[in-house]
Amino acid sequence: MQNFPSLNTNTDTNLQSELSTLNLGPTHPATHGVFQNVLQMDGERIVSGVSTIGYIHRAFEKIAEHRPFYQITPLTDRLNYCSAPINNMGWHMTVEKLLGISTPKRVDYLRVIMMELARIADHIICNGVLGVDTGAFTGFLYMMEYREAIYEIYEEVCGSRLTTNVGRLGGFERNFNDIAFAKIRKFLADFPKVLHEFESLFNRNRIFIDRTRGVAPVTQEAALDYSWSGPILRATGVDYDVRAMNPYCSYEDFDFEVPVGTTGDVYDRFLVRNEEMKQSMRMIQQALDKIEKEDPNIFHADVPEFYLPPKEEVYNNMEALIYHFKIVMGEIPTPVGEVYHSVEGANGELGFYLVNDGGRSPYRLHFRRPSFINYSMYADMSRGMMLSDAIINMSSLNVIAGELDA
Amino acid sequence: MGALNNEILQQQVTGKFGELVTFTGEPYGLLTAETTRENIIDVLTYLKQDSSLQFIYLTDITAIHYPEQENAIGVIYHLHSLVHNVRIRVKVYLPANDVRIPTATVLWNGANWMERETYDFFGVDFEGHPNLVRILNVDDMTVFPMRKEYPLEDPNRVDKKDFYFGR
């Protein structure tokens, strides 16, 4: 068990010494989100801290109890808004699991493409900002251009960029068009070079290494004790990845590696995220190859009771009109039961605990939000740390305020 | 190490605790057990520390409210044995006028914020918790908003309507 240093750093007998209070946040450029830490400082060193969160709490769990299943997707967008498609897909898969819908392979592969693009976008931000916080702006600018490329792919697929609301129960609202595939291929061709450039700016950069290596190291035991998940858990050396351990969405068909670190410090987290981006690109490439062998017209499961029909059919086709009405009015019975489904979000295990009583909206829906759980260690691990180290430690945890507060 | 599955897990827990733990099925493959607040820490400790089970990972703690039931508030633990890749769900139901349960922070530090969140929304009193205060809602809130008796705000109310900006 890792022992965090105790509060008492005032060992000298100087009667004049006293601590100063520092409010880090709620809106501070270095926190990258709306949350606050009240720190007791002894000079540059943090003696103790209290994390205060909840500044953008929007009561999603309560709202979800009053919304039909398909209207909860936009709420999930706003959890981790840096990788909204993963949340959307995770929610769709949870409901599909409840309803017993199995999706065609092509849908799974298209979803994998979207989710892995989202993971890359999320890691681009996290690692880019980590560079900014250590004083290197260039890498961030190089990489940001490719987040834009990913957002253009989202736009082509679903029409929106940040809060995507992509997909429906059973599949996608429309098929991927040729432009989307062309943009994905272009991204796969261009991004590795940039990522390589980014890595060559940082990985063996003396300043960056001095700033990050050995900062905030976390042991495997402490990480598991605090229920960490995602890249920061893997940076400690625990190879827990939901995609590998409990494959969903046909991840078992893919050949990928789970990168792990050794010391769990900021540098390892950075390396793990970079490596994950490469693995994500491998998976996207494999998904594109696999899709070639599937029927190009399939983009959703054949479940008319739950999949909203296209608008032109609603106006011209009796059956579609009936289903449209029943779906919107929530008149289709759903099975009574409880489901826990988790996906590997960009920050870790994103879980949906759904209890259904057969009505049109969940009886209870709980989000297991990785940022919330990962962040709970922050005040403890900051004890005894220099303020500037605590800042880059926060960056490397990639705390997203939307996911923190729900 | 022998493979662990739901059947063996159920046998082992029943062998250890007998009638103190009841199994209510395995919805969607996730074995679900129910116990009482007197036994919950023993059950969690056994699940975590037994060398053949090793549920070392606390996935989640949350709660649910059934106002119709005698024991209205359910506290729900999700555990994961990373060694065997088996999950289990453990539930404890508590009466609404006496919502006390011992804290799981003695086993996992990660339970700290999960229990604070559960307290914040359902008013579950985790006894022995080091810092059981509200976490997402404002400190001076007096109710536990995820309980079913608190409705969502009426979307049609007009008293908050602004002349220029609407709601």
UniProtKB/TrEMBL annotation, chain A:
Pfam families (UniProt xref): Complex1_49kDa
Entry-linked InterPro entries: NADH_Q_OxRdtase_suD (IPR001135), NADH_UbQ_OxRdtase_49kDa_CS (IPR014029), NDH1_su_D/H (IPR022885), NiFe-Hase_large (IPR029014)
Keyword list, A-Z: Cell membrane, Membrane, NAD, Quinone, Translocase, Transport
Membrane-crossing residue ranges in chain numbering: none
Any one Gene Ontology molecular-function term assigned to this protein's record: NADH dehydrogenase (quinone) (non-electrogenic) activity
Subcellular localization: Cell membrane
NADH-quinone oxidoreductase subunit D domain: residues covered: 133-405
Membrane-related topology note: Peripheral membrane protein
Keyword NAD: yes
Record has RNA-binding as a keyword: no
Matching Gene3D superfamilies: Cytochrome-c3 Hydrogenase, chain B (1.10.645.10)
Enzyme Commission identifier(s): 7.1.1.-
Main location: membrane
Reaction(s) catalysed (UniProt annotation): a quinone + NADH + 5 H(+)(in) = a quinol + NAD(+) + 4 H(+)(out)
One Gene Ontology term, aspect cellular component: plasma membrane
EC category: translocase
Function noted in UniProt: NDH-1 shuttles electrons from NADH, via FMN and iron-sulfur (Fe-S) centers, to quinones in the respiratory chain. The immediate electron acceptor for the enzyme in this species is believed to be a menaquinone. Couples the redox reaction to proton translocation (for every two electrons transferred, four hydrogen ions are translocated across the cytoplasmic membrane), and thus conserves the redox energy in a proton gradient. NDH-1 shuttles electrons from NADH, via FMN and iron-sulfur (Fe-S) centers, to quinones in the respiratory chain. The immediate electron acceptor for the enzyme in this species is believed to be ubiquinone. Couples the redox reaction to proton translocation (for every two electrons transferred, four hydrogen ions are translocated across the cytoplasmic membrane), and thus conserves the redox energy in a proton gradient.
Family according to the record: Belongs to the complex I 49 kDa subunit family.
SUBUNIT field: NDH-1 is composed of 14 different subunits. Subunits NuoB, C, D, E, F, and G constitute the peripheral sector of the complex.
The protein's name: NADH-quinone oxidoreductase subunit D
Organism listed in the record: Mucilaginibacter galii
Gene label: nuoD
TrEMBL record, chain B:
Main location: membrane
Keyword Iron-sulfur included in the entry's annotation: no
Keywords recorded for this protein, A-Z: Cell membrane, Membrane, NAD, Quinone, Translocase, Transport
Pfam families: Complex1_30kDa (PF00329)
One Gene Ontology CC term in the entry: plasma membrane
HAMAP family: NDH1_NuoC (MF_01357)
The protein's name: NADH-quinone oxidoreductase subunit C
Domain of life: Bacteria
Domain NADH:ubiquinone oxidoreductase 30kDa subunit: 35-154
InterPro entries in UniProt: NADH_DH_suC, NADH_quin_OxRdtase_su_C/D-like, NADH_UbQ_OxRdtase_30kDa_su
Residue ranges that the Swiss-Prot or TrEMBL entry lists as coiled coil: none
Subcellular localization: Cell membrane
Keyword NAD on entry: yes
NCBIfam families: NuoC_fam (TIGR01961)
Subunit details: NDH-1 is composed of 14 different subunits. Subunits NuoB, C, D, E, F, and G constitute the peripheral sector of the complex.
Job of this protein: NDH-1 shuttles electrons from NADH, via FMN and iron-sulfur (Fe-S) centers, to quinones in the respiratory chain. The immediate electron acceptor for the enzyme in this species is believed to be a menaquinone. Couples the redox reaction to proton translocation (for every two electrons transferred, four hydrogen ions are translocated across the cytoplasmic membrane), and thus conserves the redox energy in a proton gradient.
Reactions catalysed: a quinone + NADH + 5 H(+)(in) = a quinol + NAD(+) + 4 H(+)(out)
Single annotated GO MF: quinone binding
